[in-house]
Amino acid sequence: MKTFLDWSAYDTYGIGDAYSGIPATGGNYAKAVAVCMHSRDCHKTGKGVMCPSYRITGDRAHSTEARVAAFKAALNDGSDARAFADPRLDEAMDLCVSCKACKKECPSSVDMTLIKTEYLAQRHELVGAPLRTRLFGGVPEWTGRHRALLRFAIMLRNRVAPLAKLAESWLGVTARRPVPEPAPKAFARKETGATGARGEVILFVDTFCHHFEPEVAEAAVEVLERAGYGVRIAEPAPTDAEPNRPLCCGRTYLTTGLVDKARGEAARVLAAFRGEIAAQTPIIGLEPSCLLSLRDELYSLGLGPEVGDLGKQLYLLEEFLAREHQNNGLRLELKALDAPKALLHGHCHQKAFGAMRAMRKVLGWIPGFSYDIVETSCCGMAGSFGLEAEHYDASMQMAELALLPAMRNAAADAPLIANGFSCRHQIEHGSGRKARHIALLLRDALA
Length: 447
Known about the structure:
By secondary structure, this protein is mainly alpha-helical. It folds into 4 domains: 8-127, no CATH class; 131-171, no CATH class; 200-326, no CATH class; 333-445, Rossmann fold (3-Layer(aba) Sandwich). 47% of the residues lie in helices and 6% in strands. It has a 4-stranded parallel beta sheet with strand order 2-1-3-4. Strands 6-5-7 form a 3-stranded parallel beta sheet. It is globular.
């Protein structure tokens, strides 16, 4: 079976293991599906993230285990060339939000996020990618090539109710929430000429920070420079076919199953950082799903051994600061903030990759700063999931499990912290409160 992703990492899976049935077709992809050993941790509703869809429905049909069963059934029918158009798969995957919690919390590390990406790519090959999928997946290209037009269209849609209704009937984009609007001006680095006593770092400004919330990237530059680093902004390689379009991790393409597009963006990133890989320059990101995609999903795109070398140099802002504090004596001069106890929400991918420890450590540097962590599953926004008309209710149910009640109940002037762009959008929509990226909080606390 032709696959769109590289599943060779699963080549030896199942050898001498008590697998519960590797499907007859699908090769290494089938082995990735079959790692499920039916521990049923995906049916738990206590602490942790997994499984958001099971948590809101209480229905095992919307759990990781049930999704595995559906894939096994489809792949075992080796005579059917249209296995990925099987309606059982559509139903099983309908509420999967690609949170990566199963990879972290399942004892067998079922990577349903990647399994879903392959499924969507296969399905697009059979029946075509819907227009809405191409629109949501293509945000990096829309913002990079047609930014002014996109901003105008979104602003018009958000302010004229009949247009929002039209977009819902035509594209399936819910009229019940606003679509995030690009900022009036995109991120533009103001050169300071700072060389940095502690060395040089590269800031990878993702699509969302570049076009929607440039103040986050600006704050990160200020924090890093005050910490003693010379900051360069990641730029496309001189040989890039689109040298004026910012680099993108390809995350939006992966989550929508547009794998060839994702591979193209990843190849741009590798080309841009080829010299930095040799120099071992730290590369710092701000959006968890973007930076951690480069550290994880890049392996599945078949781009060669450089991927592993690049992954060793990639850090979220808080991860880099915590590492430098521990290993290289970084001491960031911070002042107390006049604020009550804050509330911290972790992005699903931060939790899946253990990055919340760095968040806690860095927040502990602010004198007198106290906060609570919201024990919650996925915020429910999950990229474009919460914008899809048929998923709006499920999205809000996920948020109402714990996140939105906690945000509403926080003190009126309490800082709300969330590093995920989608998380912040969901919090503002559901509670009327604005959450902020840790870069902004640290910038405000600079002595």
